[in-house]
Every structure is written in structure tokens, then in C-alpha cells.
Design goal:
The protein has one domain: Aldolase class I (TIM Barrel). The protein is globular and about 70 Å long. It is 39% helix and 16% strand. The protein contains twelve helices and ten strands. It binds ligand PBG.
């Protein structure tokens, strides 16, 4: 009964290792744990504020008091890290987004409070200007709405330093400007932040799956009919992501991020195979919204489809996953 590869049936029956739960567990190649998860939160100014995000059912924007409670909760669940995204009030936004490096800005103050109460919690802070600009672009624009690269990098570098000064463990530039990793790394070294990590959003695609996030941070109306096609990557390209990652590593990135996750599993896999830096992936707001709304409509089993989606991201090669599902997943994984 040899087939053309010389492998015979019935000596080979693939179903033997699938027969019982115990044997399936023994041969499992990928395991998911709370230690693989990063929880993103949306921060509001003020006190006792909590507003739901309509396009992300179950996720709220919160003022720092609520975020401190969330921090305690995720640490109890063994989730090691939180990623912070600010909701900036309109009157604090400007053409050039200079509020981004205010040492007493919303993010900087929140980092200080979180690190004082929970020094062991890893704080990942986002570097990009879109929450701070009146036009919703990630950088400073010229008269034709083109984001000016090098001017933007200067502001991003100030933003990164202000976050490191506040105590951020990981600086995460999500803006896709050229040369920003090198500039931020040099500034961190020059300011004695030798151990501050850089998680570079190296391959960030110009994706339509960011829609709910733009609702959440309030940049959607600012961006209006604008788009980010001249700095975020074209979803059609894979080879280009290898160049992006190579450059960011050479400029000083410690970890690289691929974003979104599920539509880009091939990219996660390629980068994991080719480079030896840790790869993180971001299961973005639109991925969350899809799973959540289909589950709420009864079209998908919520727990099973979500765990499968996150497992697939890990299997593709991500060592950690940013996901709005982090708390649910950590709970589901508890014995
Ligand atoms: C922008 C930024 C975006 C996200 C994180 N940082 C959106 C964008 O590029 O417009 C999206 C995250 C998500 O969709 O969950 N710097």
C-alpha cells in the first residue's frame, strides 16, 4: 500500500494523534498563554469618565482612574503589558501636533501614574501624531496635505523622549516615517535611556481595518476623506515589508510589529523566518469588530472563533499579540 512517496497506509494514519483530547494536547505545536498578550487602552482626560466605543462593543475609553483598575485586573490575569492610546480633546489638537510631547500631557501623566502604582507592568506608548493633529495625519503636513518626513521625525523624537522620561518601557512608533527609528534610538541613547525598548511598527499596512480605532481616538472626522497611502504600506506588497523590517532593525529596533494581523499572516510568517528579532502582531480594531459583531449576531461562536484567530497569529510566528480581546482570552485560558 505504498503511495508514491513510499509512505504506507495503514502504517501511517494521521488520525491516531487526533483521537483523544489528551493525545491532541501532547502533540500540540502552538500554545497560547496570557503571557503572549498585550492589552490596548484608550485614555480620556479627567476623572471617572468611561465612554463606550460604538464600533467596538465592549471596549471603552476611560480616564486614568479606570485604567489603573484595568491595569490591576490584567496583572492578576498574568497579562504583562498595556499599550496606551490617547483621546485628545479638539482644543488641544493643532496643525503640527505639538501636544504630543507635552511633558504633562495626558499620555505622559498617565504613564507616570501607571508606573508608580504598577512598576512591573510593561507600558507601551504609541509614537505618532494622529491623535494630536487637526487633520488626523500621523505627521506634519505641507500645503498639499503631504506629510513632511523629516520635520515629522523631529516631533516624533521629542514625543518619544517625553514618553521615556515619563517611564514608558517600550516606545512604539506607529507612524511609518522614514528614519524615525534611528532618530529615536540616537535620542534615547543621548538621554541615557539605554534600556528603553523600541517596538517598531515596521510593516504597518494602509488598512481599512483601522476604522473603529479612528472612531475611538476621534481622528476619523479630522482625517475626513484623507488617507495614509503615502506612508503606510500597500496591502498588495510583501517583499517591501522585508526591507522595512531590515531597515528598522539596522536603525535600532528591538522588536518589530506587523499590523493588522489576520489578513497579514503571510507577512508575520515571512518576517519571523527571515529575521531573528521578536515579532509582535496587532489584531486591530476592525478584526475585533468583525469577530465581535458576528458573534453577537449568533453567526460565530465567540470564544472559539476568537481563540482560533489569536492562535493562528501565534502559529504564524508572532511572539506576542496586541488585542482588544486580551482580557477575554486570558479568562478563557484560565483552568
Ligand atoms: C495611528 C494608529 C492607528 C492604529 C494604531 N495607531 C490607525 C491609523 O493608522 O490610522 C490602529 C489600531 C487599530 O485599528 O486597532 N498611528
Amino acid at each position: 500500500m505504498n503511495n508514491k512517496n513510499g509512505i504506507s497506509f495503514p502504517s501511517t494514519r494521521m488520525r491516531r494523534t487526533r483521537r483523544t483530547d489528551a493525545i491532541r494536547r501532547l502533540v500540540e505545536e502552538t500554545t497560547l498563554s496570557a503571557s503572549d498578550l498585550i492589552y490596548p487602552v484608550f485614555l480620556l482626560n479627567g476623572k471617572n469618565k468611561c465612554t463606550p466605543i460604538q464600533s467596538m462593543p465592549g471596549i471603552n475609553r476611560q480616564s486614568i482612574d479606570g485604567v489603573l483598575k484595568t491595569a490591576e485586573q490584567i496583572l492578576k490575569l498574568n497579562i504583562p503589558a498595556m499599550a496606551l492610546f490617547p483621546v485628545i480633546e479638539e482644543h488641544e489638537k493643532s496643525l503640527t501636533g505639538d501636544e504630543a510631547y507635552n511633558p504633562n500631557g495626558l499620555i505622559q501623566q498617565s504613564i507616570r501614574k501607571l508606573k508608580t502604582e504598577f512598576p512591573e507592568l510593561i507600558i507601551i506608548s504609541d509614537v505618532a501624531l494622529d491623535p494630536y493633529t487637526t487633520h488626523g495625519q500621523d505627521g506634519v503636513i505641507d500645503a498639499n496635505n503631504y506629510v513632511i518626513n523629516d520635520v515629522t521625525v523631529d516631533t516624533l523624537t521629542k514625543q518619544a523622549i517625553s514618553q521615556a522620561e515619563a517611564g514608558a518601557d517600550i516606545i512604539a512608533p506607529s507612524d511609518m516615517m522614514d528614519g524615525r527609528i534611528g532618530s529615536i534610538r540616537n535620542a534615547l541613547e543621548a538621554n541615557n535611556f539605554h534600556n528603553t525598548l523600541i517596538l517598531s511598527y515596521a510593516a504597518k499596512y494602509a488598512s481599512s481595518f483601522y476604522g473603529p480605532f479612528r472612531d475611538a481616538v476621534g481622528s476619523k472626522n479630522n482625517l475626513a476623506t484623507g488617507n495614509k497611502f503615502n506612508y503606510q504600506m500597500n496591502p498588495a506588497n510583501a517583499l517591501e515589508s522585508l526591507r522595512e523590517v531590515e531597515l528598522d532593525i539596522s536603525e535600532g529596533a528591538d522588536i518589530v510589529m506587523i499590523k493588522p494581523a489576520m489578513p497579514y499572516l503571510d507577512i508575520i510568517n515571512k518576517i519571523n523566518q527571515k529575521f531573528s528579532v521578536p515579532v509582535f502582531a496587532y489584531q486591530v480594531s476592525g478584526e475585533y469588530a468583525m469577530l465581535k459583531s458576528a458573534s453577537e449576531a449568533g453567526y460565530l461562536n465567540h470564544k472559539e472563533s476568537t481563540l482560533e484567530s489569536i492562535m493562528s497569529i501565534k502559529r504564524a510566528g508572532a511572539s506576542a499579540i496586541l488585542t482588544y480581546y486580551a482580557i477575554d482570552v486570558a479568562r478563557w485560558l484560565q483552568p
